[in-house]
Amino acid sequence: MPALLAPAIVDGGFCFGPLDAVSNIIANAVRHLPPSGAHVEEFGMREGFTKDGDGEGFGMSHPFANEAVQRSIKALVGFLAFYFRYLPTLEAQHYLFAAKGDLLAAVHLVEAERCTGAFDVGSHTTKTALRCAAGAAGHADLDSLVTAMRSLSDERTLERCTKSLERVLLDKIHGFYLEALALLPQDQLRRRYHRSVVMAGHCYGPLDPVSNIVLNTIWYDAAFPVPNKKQQPELDMVGRWALIRAERRCLVGLVAGLRAFAGDHGLSEVAAIRCLLRANGDFATAMSVLQPALLGHRQPTTMPSESELHRLMAAMAQRLELYRVMAVAAQHPSPDRLHEFLLSDRVCALRTPWESRRFSREDVRSVIRSLDLEPPPPLGMPSELLRLTTQAQNTIKLFPDAKKRFCADMSSFHRKAKAALDDYVLQNMGPEYVMHVVCGANEMVADRDGPEYSSINWPLSFNKLHYSHINFLASPVCSSAADMSPTLFFAECVNYNEESDRDRKNICCPVVVPPTNAERVRCFYCEYNGMSIIHPVDGNYHGCDIDFEKLARQQHKMNNSIESVFNRGNYVTNSNGPVQEDYFYFDHARELSV
């Protein structure tokens, strides 16, 4: 090889870039060459470099060649793992192997598998991933990498599935819930529906996912109201842990329903998830996508109409009892009653003709008026509760403390978000907003220097985490606000008011739920804690960039493995046991009878 190029290949010539692997090595090495005028013999003196037989160039010994290979692999894997959410390094390696080391191909293989296609070279997430990749490989020439990566394009596929697809689908389902919360009347959401949406507001049914959540939420509240209205106070927050669990249960229900639809064809769990991703989480659309493959037909070039999807859903739900299958799998509190309701004439009458499966705000108000169901018969005290076990008695003793913790969290998040919203209104000189509900919160976010050693949280932790990331809904104060959908906001709020926190500032801005075919911007702390928070795309928040760079260099105070971030977040989202809000909503007479 040319004399000047040999050491540059080791120092900076890794196969990370928009070209084929060999061309990337050469291009990166050339960009890493020393200033003009450097003497060639200086490089020949470096240990591990030898002159070629003809004396015209230099070669590399095996250890130096191996070092260059390892750094290239770290850069390639680093970019994929830090660009895509929920992608462990082992799976990133599989994609790179399938793409034969072509980074651009690997990016689009992941996109094809996840049914996304919004890769943007200029996005903040891409730039952060580039810095992480450079840091992982020990390469410092970030500017040239960013310039080279601007030529990336898409359109590749890969027939492989990973467990991380579940997390991608859960993100879509979380987006459905945020849209549903905005569609419900906010005053009634705070008074009534905060309970039924997390207990039974699942996203399967005859409509689109968002409208199904709304319909199932309103029905459950009407069919199984709180016995004593005084026991259901007005809340400023939708239970975050119960919402995470509801989203997980929806996923399980959707997968079970699609596998039941496939019948003897033996649809695997991961194949069902892939099909749901292609259908953007819409069960009826997923059936229409899957049906031709089951029948051995070619995939149609056009998607079915709304009325065709409705007829397909109605026919299959009746024939295969799909609503019951999904409700049982999703641990719905009353699967038989839900199945009967969704197949009833009352539901069919809600949308005639079936030109659209999506509710408008007026539709929601109409459904609330029409679902004036007779309350279920009063339930007496189950005999099992007349003689409580010691374990049951000890559990009930936890109720007051659990309720206090929930109320304390709700009050804290609402107060912080309200202060941030007031700052936003002041900075933008209006308009005034009325705040509705908190619909996502993570109080464990550190500043750029990482967690601070402190006794402020003792005995729970020696770490002081400086900020909270909060999503909430709010509407402008105006005469037409009742007919407008509330706005989703993101707030980064200062947690403490100590002297060392005086210079910290709140951040607040409107955000939108990302399109279903787009990757979300990343936050180390929210992913690490398993929280689905919608962040601003400009990256103006803590946890966006520097934390991933430190993670890539194994210098982060909290964690030094992208695998651990993925696994820890997975542990939270996969949890199906009791959560804090269960103590708040528990109705002993009904819970043991339905």
Explain briefly what this protein structure is.
The chain has 594 residues and is an alpha+beta fold.
Your description of this structure?
- A hairpin with a 6-residue loop joins strand 1 and strand 2.
- 51% of the residues lie in helices and 8% in strands.
- The protein has 594 residues and is an alpha+beta fold.
- It has three domains: 145 residues, no CATH class; 206 residues, no CATH class; 162 residues, no CATH class.
- The strands form three sheets. A four-stranded antiparallel beta sheet has the order 3-6-7-8, sandwiched between helices. Strands 1-2 form a two-stranded antiparallel sheet.
- The chain has 26 helices and eight strands.
- InterPro entries: DUF3615 (IPR022059), PIR2-like_helical (IPR046527).
